[in-house]
Amino acid sequence: MSSSSASSFSAPTPIRLPMTEKLMKTNYLLWKVQVLPAVHAAQLEGYLHGTVQAPPTHNEEKDKDGKPILTPNPAYTTWVTRDQQLMSYLLSSMSKDVLVQVATTKTAAQVRSTLEEIYASETRARAVNTRIALATTKKGATSVAEYVSKMKALGDEMASAGKALDEEELVHYILTGIDDMEYNPVVSAVLARLEAITVDELLVQL
Question: What's the rounded Cα separation, in Å, for the pair 33 and 94?
């Protein structure tokens, strides 16, 4: 789709927002949280998603004799400048391991689609494995504080995989993993409550 107006191909807007979290194999969603606002602020989201496509490389005009001639299209030059500006920003925010995986891409939209394909399956696998860990982790001989801290970390891992747990669900997992008889009265009391309890409140009770 080529632009119908010159305004769509105005001078590039620099992306000045710094990137504090480089893209690695385990933080794709956190990376996106940083990238998207910067891209929107620079008005380059159409290039990222491929909805702003390259215009023709040349315009067809006629010479004084009426014969068609091709002249370079300034709009194409501007499109390339903006697209490569965005692509450079994306690549500069990636670790070396990730850069290798997008080395053959040519446009910002190709970078985005390649990353989506790579991380979609990895993110699902992380969420499944973390949920299994939540369901099977037991307090055992660890202290209550250590156990709850570990479960909260697993909850954070679910959130980073895009499958955030609500407080009540995390409390359920924590209670399920408490296998010490001495905590049975507390567990029973919490389960009998009509109102929900937060993880921090549960820790105090335990």
Answer: 14
